[in-house]
Amino acid sequence: MKKILLLLAVCILAPVVIYATSANEGDAEETYDEDAFGPEAPIIWPQPVKAVIFTHATHTVEEEFDCESCHDDIFEMEAGAAEQGENFTMQAMYNGASCGACHDGETAFSAAAGGTPCHIGVRGHARLMAKESVSGEKPGH
Ligand code: HEC
Ligand code: HEC
Questions:
Q1: Residue of 2, 13, 100, 131 with fewest CB within 10 Å of its CB?
Q2: Which atom of ligand 1 is nearest to the CA of 88?
């Protein structure tokens, strides 16, 4: 009797479990998981030059860094903190501080390389701010 009940339970539950997991997989492709990959909105620093952009997704999803690669040794989990410190200058980065810990021409493209995608300029900043306020999303900074 117990065996039949168990069999019955498996027959009923298996499709439910399979359905639930496949539905989850579908969701994972559409919804960005901020707990797993960090904030979705880019971090934008208007200081010391206008403006520099950092996107978690390219670093955590594409490059597969874990949070500990940056937090909290290199960066605090607080947008706008870095620009308050003395390590957020190009010279400090050439010496291996902050973004320069990786952007040294070996782990990642060098911070010293011309035309890096980090600096979006005054216009890029204005464009992003306009876009963020239209979409109602608060920019990182
Ligand atoms: C490649 C480096 C890097 C990695 C990896 C990284 N972060 Fe960050 N994170 C940053 C930087 C840079 C900031 C902005 C810090 C600042 O402005 O001083 C930041 C800020 C944050 C913030 C604050 C955002 C806000 O609006 O105040 C959170 C939360 C955060 N990170 C979570 C995560 C989580 C969770 C992970 C792992 C899934 C992660 N980060 C991985 C670099 C990284
Ligand atoms: C833990 C290592 C690490 C740190 C720290 C890091 N990066 Fe990166 N970053 C990478 C790697 C790896 C890539 C992929 C490109 C490559 O390999 O050259 C990348 C790519 C990028 C890109 C191009 C892709 C994109 O997101 O548009 C930008 C811009 C960028 N990083 C900005 C920054 C800035 C700004 C900081 C500091 C606030 C920073 N990164 C800190 C490792 C790092």
A1: 2
A2: 18
